[in-house]
Write the structure tokens for this entry.
Amino acid sequence: MKNSRRKFLRNTALGISSIPAVSFIGKSNDNQSLNDISSFLNRSAQTYWSEVRNLFPTDKNDTYFNNGTLGVQSNYVLNAVISDMRNNAINGAKTDYKGEGPNLLSGYDPYESIRKKLGKLINCDFKELSLIQNATFGMNFVAHGLDLKKGDEVINTNQEHGGGFAAWRQLAKRKGIIYKEAIMPVPANNKQDIIDSILNEVTKNTKVIAIPHIISVYGTVMPIKEICEFARSKGIFTVIDGAQAVGQIDVDLKDLKCDAYYSSLHKWLLSPPGSGILYLDEKISADIWPTLSSYNWDNQEDKGFSLQQSGTGNPSLRVGLEASIDFFNMIGKDRWLNRVKELGKYLRDGLKEMDNVEIVSSYNEDLCAGLTTYKVNGLTGPELQKTLWDKERLQPRSVGKELMRHSVHIYNQKSEIERTFDVIKSLS
């Protein structure tokens, strides 16, 4: 039984040698392999990124600009997930649930291979990492795992996603902690102004600073390292919401020196929905109680494993998560992140030239990446979203009543951004 499972995993998208080579030009193929992808790495930039676009299954007539909500999975990742699910359905009777690796019945695999790859990607020890469902889970695991008491202060910002503030507000109501929101500048163009807005809220009672790495509404890349350095000098616990960060910017946890970090990998890393991570610095991990407890709840040798115990889930998503990491590594971290930044700047530069557009994201490119928010005079956000779709089948996301949020990724082309410009110009 064990051998049959291991043989299957070698033959899925995680075992690339078994998948036949295909041509990507003008095609979308479910059987793409990493060997095939590497075959066009040395082509011209325009040809290269055009062929990367063909690695994704989205309709070529539609343009997806809402990666900040949910990223598009490549054909390579989709194939890994679907193949594993199909195998589970066909060969369940032959599968030893106590066998090695992800398996059909057990929800208690340590997934060391995946965690080691993620640890290398964000620079931490794999035992400091837990595989969780998403960033909201991470926030709750930390907030409810800390031993906070009445009167303890937690500093958030006024630009949090619900997944970044709800647990802290609940603790204020339930346990009497003091919940505070630092008022962030809009647009945030100066790093020191951001730092000051948060640190000015610190008092002798501050126990936690919980802030985003990237603001989900405005795309501001926060000066996390400086804030964490101050907090550590004062003995303040730092929790960083990296939902929008991993896969959009370089994340180096040893350099950031935060205490806790969580992320949703279904956004910028283009992993299957249900793929998240929680990092806890090994020096403080024992201070976090498991929010969900099962067999290995008190495993101090591998604290990350103990905190990810949540019963049976969908092991095929883990297969897809590993495939997404391999896909990222094949593209290459620098090539991937630079492309996201390049497209984001291309969008912002074009929008700045238009009299009917007001950008509310930062004008400081050091504080920007692939997410840009703006508004067009005379149109609500939903009206603009409908107009972009009706005229050119462009799909960014409206935020609130006025704002439009554009998320660009490696599967986008500059020509698609230029079509955005054409529509907006026609509205002036």
User: Anything to note?
Assistant: The first strand starts at residue 63 and ends at 64. Residues 249 and 338 are 9 Å apart (CA to CA). The radius of gyration is 22 Å.
